[in-house]
Amino acid sequence: MCELHRAATPGPWFVRQLDDDDAMSLVAVSTVPDTGRGERWPDFDSGEVVAATLVQRPRCVDVADGRWDENAAFIAMARTAVPRLLDEVWRLRRLLAESRPANGHDGSPAA
Q: Are 14 and 30 in contact (CB under 8 A)?
């Protein structure tokens, strides 16, 4: 497991559809699932929010292409998928290393 993974907030992460103090959309990545109630700040625990892909009031997080939901879904999915992918890469590397003879030659004729 890499240091970045161990240092990050534990997963899984979820996309939350929230509202700010003026009831404008706030799209967040959270440590708890979305309730479906679109809680309005301060009626949600900001300590559960890992990241935001849209904060409209004040307008400080607002990507130009408008893919707030898609970006939040990717971030939340990556928290689980990246460590699994790294584990698989390391597993395959171990298998490859174990399949090679100690002298580094696989016995096939030289080219």
A: yes
CA gap 9, 83 in Å, rounded: 13
**Nearest Cα to Cα of residue 29 among 64, 75, 70:** 75
In whole angstroms, what is the distance from residue 92 CA to residue 98 CA?
10
What phi, psi does 49 have (nearest 5°)? -90, 120
Strand partners, 54: 27, 62
List the strands of the sheet with 25-30, edge to edge.
14-19, 25-30, 49-56, 59-62
pLDDT tens-digit readout, 2-12: 787 889 999 99
Question: Hey, what are 18's tokens?
Answer: 């929230």
**Domain locations in the chain as residue ranges:** 10-99
Contact 26, 18 (CB under 8 A): yes
pTM for this model (two decimals) = 0.78
